[in-house]
Fold:
Amino acid sequence: MACQIEAVPPRPLGAAGRRNSRRHLRGDAVQRLLMFTALFIASAASGVLFAHAQPPPRLPAPTEDRVGYPAGYSTDYSLFYVFDRVDNRQVRVVYGNQAAASATAGQPFPYGSILVMETHRALLDETDNPVLDEVGRFVRGDQAGLFVMRKEPGFGAAYEHNRTGEWEYAQFALDGTLMPPQNTGSCAACHADAGGTRDWTWRTGLYFYSQSGAPPLAPPGLERTGRAYMQAYLFLPESNTVTTGTTVVWSNDDAAVHTVTAAGGNFDSGRLPPGSTFEYVFIEPGTYEYFCSLHPRTMAGRIVVN
Ligand code: HEC
Ligand SMILES: [Cu+2]
Structure:
């Protein structure tokens, strides 16, 4: 099996066996990590850090919270979207205040916008799969967290190279206790990948285009075409059957970063931002299992080459 997978012959002239149209991203995770390490080493060398018992370096973040608890959000704000998240089996319920709800699709959010996200555990059945209601949606179990982002003039500078426009972030425990704002550097670092064209939000398009956040079904008829889509933490369709020499194309139609990684090790897209594609030409017959290295629990697929 492994031999078969490894024995992919070089491609004929002019056709790359592996083409990757991923765009360059500001604040790529690897780059951040490297920068981090460099900073760490630099400060260690300058004697700022001592030999041991030092906490790991933090991502740049505000030291004071300017977001605030969004009192009354569940009654006074508009419901933005409800997203059933298959990979970590959560229901994410997002609300927006009046300013946020007045935003126009494709335009940045106005100052004063506040977005609030509740994360709930999905109810699970005996086999550990999410229970579905009569319209196929996850059923909300206990609430786990409360995440808030707020946009005001001049906000966000403290996140430095991970700055996401003029948003600042806050996380609250269920009793309303504020988590240390110094820890919100990771919020900005991840939302930076969503990019400025969506004003550094991920799934607010569900609100602007009145779309459902239900787990999607595979578009029919793709199982033999060599096309696969990444949507809502799934590969759709999960299985494709193609003939030798087919170029299989995966498109990231999701609002999150994914990878297309062969279990056998012979292809790996690296981080694919939303809107990008990855292609691979299959020469040798066989069954090729692949997964997303970021969300392996639900993102796994298969290419059968005849
Ligand atoms: C690893 C990446 C990541 C990190 C870290 C992260 N988020 Fe998000 N956030 C997302 C994604 C992706 C969504 C869309 C829902 C989904 O797919 O789960 C989202 C959604 C949101 C939303 C709803 C608006 C939107 O963008 O669709 C808010 C508000 C939010 N996050 C706040 C926060 C806060 C506050 C923190 C830090 C405490 C944080 N996030 C950390 C990835 C991240
Ligand atoms: Cu993924």
